[in-house]
Amino acid sequence: MGPRGSRQVDPLSLLFDFLATGPGAALTTLRGLLGVLLGVGALIFFHELGHFLAAKWAGVRVDVFSLGMGPRLFGVVHGDTDYRVSALPIGGYVSMLGQVDGDPDQPRTERDDDFRNKSVEKRFVIMVAGVVMNLVLAAVGFVLCFGLGVDFAAAEVGAIEPGSAASRADLRRGDVVTHVDGGEVLGFQDLGTLAAIADGEIELTVVRDGRAFKTKATPVRGPNDRFARLGVSLAYVVGDVQEGTPFWDAGLRPSTPTRGLHWLNVSAVDSRCAPDTVMKAPAINRALGDLQGRVVATFEEVHYDESGRPQGRELKQFEVDLERKPIFHLGLAIPDQAWIRSVKEGSAAAKAGIREGDRLVEIAGRPVTASNLSQAVRRAGALAAETQDHRVGLVVERKGERQSLEAVLAPQNPQVIERALEGVKGDAARLEVVEEVGQWLLGVIYAADVVAEPCTLPLADAKADPVQLQPGDRFTRIWVEEGTFLWGGERTFDRSRVNRMHQASRLKVAWLPKGASEERTAVVQATQHPTATRPVLGFDLQMRQVTIQRSPLNALWLGLEQTMIQTRRIALMLGAFLTGAVSPRELGGPIQIVNVTYKFASQDSLSKLLHLLAILSVNLAVINILPIPILDGGHIFFLAIEKLKGKPVSTEILMNAQWFGLFCIVGLMALVIFNDIRRLLGS
Q1: E-only strand ranges, 545-637
Q2: What pLDDT was estimated at residue 91?
Q3: How far does the chain reach from its first CA to its final CA, in angstroms?
Q4: Does position 2 have pLDDT exceeding 90, yes or no?
């Protein structure tokens, strides 16, 4: 799924956007559409161009050169070839004289330009040319984007899991990994990929406070991991700071490329603070908890050179009067019970035997409600971390009966509790790990949107007829204005946000009456909660980014390296899919490709679009070289058999294999398109 706040794209919404927005927004939409058409079209065009040029080189007659599949829309006939655009934009093809893909009864000719009359070597060149062209196109795309400069999430260590490969290698927060086994690391994703594909021990080149050194680490795959991991998380720094807020007035300013402010902890001025916590943005509010009045927030300021490598660091503290704002609520009678709506495949919950429709009653011997589920899982995870097998007891209610289960809770995206050593300040300051907090994931979505008791919906229009809600009515969607909440627009409920809207006071909701098939909607007026408040920071944390830009010659070398890394990454994902480590539900298809390409093309960054298209080109090359009948790799596989046997595979076997391959491809396409539609609908 896309990140929180991301927008799914479909052709109809793009049209409405274009018609309903001003010239600037319409131009952005048009730029996105052109980026999709030209970018994805170029990938297909150059792949088929490779086959076409190789066929011409080998002296084979080309009957059709098509962008798209299915019926012909338009085109031009030149010589023996029909250059056309077809109706279905899901690929393309080159049809040559003598190919038997679609016509097993096609008579064999004695013509020299018949594909079947060419040597195995020439036919191999024709079949592999599309893949080669995509790899060449990818390398060119990488060269161009690195020449312009591309932003990546920095390969900087944020938090480190105690006992992990990174911990044993003595990595520390703020270290920047520049190379793995001699290969340059561009960003955090590269670091994760190179760790995942490593076969045993790897050598890391690390920069710490201006000094480069080498260390060795052996990535480990944990019980809930798909791949081997180093055990580090991203580094987050202060992003935007709102003027006029307490932190702005205290002197807090946004991070810059050469100066990064890393959040460490917050504590009340008059309290004895527990060990400082290093947390990501969503966790700051948990760190603030119920703190009131004057607080001290501690940051670590890291200084970087122009290449993004750390040169030194010091601790910074800001003392402010913490601002808190009220929480708005609808006053609805929604039960505080953790009814399980769905269970993520392969998660700790799925492995424990939790099912959709269960009610989670206890975790680690303590009662569980919808309100405290996340807190209960974190507490249970901390207890599980103290045991050798990370097991924790669960109690669920299923069809009126209680059952005891066991789950293995291993930390995901861990955070760490660290403490500054007393009496040490400035550049010499060191933070020591004292215990692991971790973000433990059970892998369930619970229902927090079903009305429990009869109640009246608080309508915004006081003159409208009252709307009565009955037990079993279920809220489905909500609309809020941009800027009134962390997200704006339509939202499908998957968390307990029906009853507490934080900032928004006027919103539109949709609900499904029990037993009904059609939703109802209303504009409602939330009211201020009598006691609940939320802290206001006035700043956010963002992933620290670096810009990678190279000279043409260095960009060429880096482009070749990235082509190899992306190829290995795709092979890794395919292997994980075949072994079940990655669920089929996570695969994306043409709609997802269009969606992602549109987002990149809509941005004012040609380099990001080129980088994405280069990655997609590598994807296309790797997928096509797989030995699946109907793909290029399938043709090459049968050519290898022909070379070994001294004669071609029979037409009957070849056609049966082609039909099998077509069945597999159509089935896979149906799956990924279903996944794409599911993402669009947000379900």
Answers
A1: 545-548
A2: 67
A3: 10
A4: no
Model confidence at 1: pLDDT above 90: no
Q: How many angstroms from the chain centroid is the CA of residue 279? A: 20
Number of CB atoms found within 10 A of residue 396's CB:
23
Residue 204's pLDDT is 92
| Helices and strands in the chain, H and E counts | 14, 33
| DSSP class of 273 | P
237 half-sphere exposure, CB direction, 13 A CA radius:
23
Q: What is the pLDDT of residues 179-198, one digit of tens each?
A: 888 888 888 888 887 887 77
Residue with the larger pLDDT of the pair 127 and 6: 127
Token digits of residue 378 = 């974190």
Q: Is the pLDDT of residue 416 over 80?
A: no
Cα Rg of the chain (Å, integer): 29
Let me know if the fold of 236-327+539-543 is the same as that of 332-406+442-457+459-525.
Answer: yes
Query: φ and ψ at 558, to 5 degrees?
Result: -65, -35
As given in the structure block, the two tokens for residue 80 are 């023996």
pLDDT one-digit tens code per residue, 268-303:
665 433 333 444 444 555 556 556 678 888 888 888
CATH class for the domain made up of 332-406+442-457+459-525? mainly beta
How many C-beta neighbours within 10 Å does residue 227 have? 19
User: Mean per-residue pLDDT for 384-390?
Assistant: 68
Selection from 223, 201, 190, 235 nearest residue 572 by Cα: 190
Tokens of 1: 């799924």
Average confidence score pLDDT of the chain: 72
Under a CB-based contact definition with an 8 Å cutoff, are residues 39 and 613 in contact? yes
Residue entry with tokens 């927005």: 21
- Tokens 């003392």 — which residue? 319
* Residue 72 scores a pLDDT above 50: yes
Residue 75, amino acid: G
Domain spanning 236-327+539-543 has what CATH number? 2.30.42
- C-alpha 628/C-alpha 622 separation (Å) is 12
Q: 419: which strand partners? A: 432
**The pLDDT of residue 388:** 67
- Of residues 29 and 257, more confidence is placed in 257
Query: Would you say 440 and 324 are in contact if contact means Cβ atoms under 8 Å apart?
Result: no
Q: What is the pLDDT of residues 197-253, one digit of tens each?
A: 777 888 999 998 889 999 999 888 776 666 778 888 888 888 888 888 888 998 999
pLDDT at position 132: 92
Among 48, 156, 184, 436, which one carries the catalytic annotation? 48
Phi, psi angle pair for 502, to nearest 5° = 60, -90
- Name residue, tokens 């060795």: 216
48 in catalytic set: yes
Whether the CB-CB separation of 617 and 49 falls below 8 Å is answered with no
C-alpha atoms less than 13 angstroms from C-alpha of 183 in its C-beta half-sphere: 19
Residues above pLDDT 70, as percent of the chain: 65
Q: Domains of the chain: which residue ranges?
A: 11-149+582-608+626-681, 236-327+539-543, 332-406+442-457+459-525
**Distance from C-alpha of 633 to C-alpha of 652, rounded to nearest angstrom:** 19
- Rounded to an integer, the average pLDDT of 565-594 is 63
Specify the 3-state DSSP secondary structure of 212.
Answer: strand
Residues paired with 203 in a beta bridge: 216
Q: Are 419 and 275 in contact (CB under 8 A)?
A: yes
Q: Which two tokens stand for residue 236?
A: 């987050």
| Strand duo 444-447 + 338-343: pairing | antiparallel
- What span, in angstroms and rounded, lies between the C-alpha atoms of 309 and 188? 14
Written as six digits, the tokens of 612 are 């994405």
Residue that the structure tokens 């505080």 belong to: 336
Contact 237, 262 (CB under 8 A): yes
CA distances from 330 to 478, 506, 522 (A): 12, 10, 13
| Dist CA 215 CA 171 (whole Å) | 9
Dihedrals phi, psi of 471, to nearest 5 degrees: -55, 130
Region 344-361: what's the mean pLDDT?
Answer: 79
